[in-house]
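[Discussion] Sanity-checking designs against the backbone

I'm trying to build intuition for which residues belong where. Below is a structure token string of 186 positions. I'd appreciate it if someone posts a full sequence so I can compare it with mine line by line.
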């Protein structure tokens, strides 16, 4: 792995469920190491099913350069749940979905079934297809912090190495952290 890998980090823009707007932006920040070199964005449906396709499209706009895809969890715009396996297959780029805490899968399953009683199967399938949730510890300026992740197309040891290169003052990789900051301002 190079010292300054080129990554694209994704997070969604802020949104409210009770708004008249039914969309929010999916933001991708392209970094070489921890230095920003580009940004892309496109609307996704709140609680929809199009985040996978939008993420693939935004990644392919930069596919010559991007080596890794990193996301803030597997859910965007509420329960617009991405399919990690499909993203990896369509982009041929390793993908890592990071989260700050362990996920209670049973609570998530119940929430999805309750909110989408007629069409929850695909959303649940995307969660199952994400695979195991791994744990690692990242050293930042404030000490060691636990980070959890799903991954496709990359060994767990490589994810650990990549996260150590991309996490500086936060346990969240810089491309994702910056996407989050941009998303909060939109």
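Best answer:
Here's mine. Compare freely.
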């Amino acid at each position: 792995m190079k010292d300054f890998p080129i990554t694209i980090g994704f997070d969604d823009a802020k949104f409210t469920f009770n708004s008249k707007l039914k969309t929010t932006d999916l933001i991708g920040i392209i970094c070489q190491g921890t230095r920003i070199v580009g940004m892309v964005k496109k609307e996704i449906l709140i609680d929809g099913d199009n985040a996978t396709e939008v993420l693939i499209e935004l990644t392919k706009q930069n596919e010559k350069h991007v080596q890794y895809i990193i996301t803030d969890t597997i859910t965007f715009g509420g329960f617009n749940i991405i399919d990690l396996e499909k993203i990896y297959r369509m982009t041929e780029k390793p993908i890592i979905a990071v989260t700050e805490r362990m996920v209670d899968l049973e609570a998530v399953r119940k929430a999805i079934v309750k909110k989408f009683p007629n069409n929850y199967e695909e959303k649940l399938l995307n969660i199952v297809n994400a695979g195991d949730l791994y744990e690692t510890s990242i050293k930042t300026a404030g000490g060691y912090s636990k980070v959890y992740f799903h991954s496709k197309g990359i060994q767990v040891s490589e994810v650990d190495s990549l996260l150590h290169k991309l996490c500086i003052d936060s346990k969240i990789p810089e491309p994702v952290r910056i996407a989050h900051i941009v998303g909060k301002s939109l």
